[in-house]
Fold:
Amino acid sequence: METVVNNDQLIIKIEKALDTMRPYLAADGGNVKILEVTEDRTVRLELIGSCGSCPMSAMTFKGGLEEAILRAVPEITKVEAVNLTPAF
Structure:
């Protein structure tokens, strides 16, 4: 029988995963915010501060934030950022 996890519980787990990355983001003047967790278990994030306009934000997202969430919260199926800046 599968354990039902509600969005509040998921958000707490996601925040804990993001907290492991926040010191690195903050060192460069940035942060990340959870916008929503959809019904299909997709997390939508917004990069804020300098992270929202940094050309390295796609790498930070893929290699750091997405990986941290998927590793710590296996219930999540996908992680999206709404405002990634394309690398040049």
